[in-house]
Amino acid sequence: MRMDSPLFRLLADPISLLSGMIMRPPRAKYSTCDLGHPRFTITGCPGEFERRDFQVRGGRGMLLECSHFVPSQAPPARKLPCVVYLHGSCSSRLEALDTLRELLPRGLTVCCVDFSGSGLSEGEYISLGHWEERDLAALVRHLRDSGSVSSIGLWGRSMGAATAVLRASQDPSIAACVLDSAFGCLPTVARELVQRTRWKIPESLVSMALDRVRKEVQAKVDFDIEELRPVAFAPRSRVPALFAVAKEDDFVLPHHTYDIHQAWGCADKKLVTVGGHHDSLRPKKFMQFAADFLQQRLLLAAKDGVGSPAYSTRTPTPARSKRTSQEPAARKASHCFGGC
Fold it and tell me: pLDDT at residue 134 above 70?
């Protein structure tokens, strides 16, 4: 076992490793040049597109770096549906670039953001969804106030998916969500990471370590990891959702997605399985399927005028839900993409 491996660090100093994973994982470093040319074309798609960079002040008062990808020839007064892409814990808005060739040709604009503590945005720490939900609320409010978007959908992965669950539980005017590898309960993820080592660690030591991590995170980032349980908010959502789970995900175990899917409060929900691990590239067929899902629901919502209801920024209140680690029956009828 290498001394710089995560497993060695977990055994040698579990508190530092777990707290680092929660509030300060490796920060994605890039420059705006990596976002590509501000004006670009997509093969097989007529017309030209452009990237408009802007800043929004997030939930903790920090400046967030954002980008909005739109058709270059769109009339200024025309409102278009928008998909807000939400990145994972070690990532940035660059993650959204993989969605452009699927979403833009379907008549959807794409907005992406570096959450506070991520990428080029201000902030030292992340919070795996707690403060990111406030960042997202500020961004959605900015987009609505801009007068340039009609319906709004969310596409989140890992931390971004958990963030989308929290926001969707509060904002019924979100038109649809794609939720890729969301975790249902942060304390459970932490315990499962410790328990999956080859060495059996006594439960008393695990609980002691998590209690110290909890106190350290509260002191530095001002949130309680014990309260970060997206599955408890899922029953409140009335937003159509597409759930994605990676078959070989050994970081956030698949039961987290099954639990949230089962608890989701909207009947319009789908569950798909993709091959690979937590951070694997998603297959093209899944990307197309997800883009179709968003297109159908955002265009319908835009036609019906969804997106205008009073916007709420109040703190979410979890609903009680029955947690289960068993795969739901709906899994049997789900779609499967890439090596399943």
Answer: yes
What are the b/e assignments for 78-87, b being 16+ CB within 10 Å?
Answer: ebbbbbbbbb
User: Rounded to whole angstroms, how far apart are CA atoms 218 and 304?
Assistant: 43
In the chain, the amino acid numbered 93 is: R
- The whole-angstrom separation of Cα 209 and Cα 225 is 13
- Return the CATH class of domain 33-182+230-337: alpha beta
* Six token digits for residue 320: 């009680």
Task: Convert 265-297 to b/e letters by CB count within 10 Å (16 or more is b).
Answer: bbeebbbbbbbbebebebbeebbebbbebbbeb
pTM score: 0.90
| Cα–Cα dist 54/50, whole Å | 13
Where are the chain's structural domains? 1-30+186-227, 33-182+230-337
